[in-house]
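Example complex used in Figure S2.
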Amino acid sequence: GIQVEQSPPDLILQEGANSTLRCNFSDSVNNLQWFHQNPWGQLINLFYIPSGTKQNGRLSATTVATERYSLLYISSSQTTDSGVYFCAVSTFYNFNKFYFGSGTKLNVKP
Amino acid sequence: DAMVIQNPRYQVTQFGKPVTLSCSQTLNHNVMYWYQQKSSQAPKLLFHYYDKDFNNEADTPDNFQSRRPNTSFCFLDIRSPGLGDAAMYLCATSLRGTATNEKLFFGSGTQLSVL
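Predicted assembly (225 residues):
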């Protein structure tokens, strides 16, 4: 099956700093989503972005499908951004199945 | 608001005692998923339903079963829970699972403890 790798595994930021999270995948994808898991375990969908660039407030994401990676940018980080960020992908031949990367644990300090 | 609801939020069971976790959705989505998430790990897909069609992951233990009696409800049955089955169980839905712009919607999860 498809392999999904995220980096870095852990990230500590001072409030106000910017960061870039990366998701690499081993096969062509028809769907890619970024999630934020808060400390209570709730997974919140941030972006669905199989290709191209999207922005939502302080967050933006870019997927370069031909090179099999996606980036999540967080600008002017806040303590509420803390948590774990996951990317999840599905493929053209397993389009109903979403597989998660290992996640990036972000800790934003005041 | 339309949503994915999981009950209970916390479930405690005894080693070997069958347990059922429930998930309901008001989104009228075709696809429902069960994921298992152990501490500090990524969610792992156990199985999913596309309407009434059940799709099991190859590495999902036989101890885990699922039922989907109608569009709105889906259940996860663990027939004989072991200590290694303690985890967060997440239910998710998607409309069709096919379109490139579809989102996954997650419930808040059930944290299962096995004593």
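The mean pLDDT of chain B is 92. The CA atoms of residues 52 and 68 of chain B lie 7 Å apart.
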